[in-house]
Specification:
single chain
Length: 142
Amino acid sequence: MWGIIIALISGALMSIQGVFNTELTKQSSLWVTTGFAQLTAFIVCLFAWLATGRQSVSAILNVQPKYMLLAGAVGAFITLTVIKGMDSLGPAKAVMIIVVAQIITAYIIEVFGLFGVEKTGFELKSVVGAALAIAGIVIFKW
């Protein structure tokens, strides 16, 4: 139950952040907003780290495989693409498409066991669920 609550909060925060960043971009620029979002996230993380025990920062250098260190760079492009998507489609349509893309990508990662995730079996019901989500977007759009 706690995981569901956290996931719901996460989804709501992503939508709010997307709207905020889109509006910031209208008053500044795409890369300034993206950089500012990452900088303020860093500052929040720094304060949280200082307040919660100060685990070793150098441990990050021992992460394997090394491509996992690209998570922050991916985050910058997430911010950028959410801004552009919301600006082009509006928040509701953009978020629906983003969520479906997340579902499909996450399912592919699980089915093929990519990036060290435990491999799961292919299930037709999951594909049907994704197709229903896509149909929902089509119905919402028209």
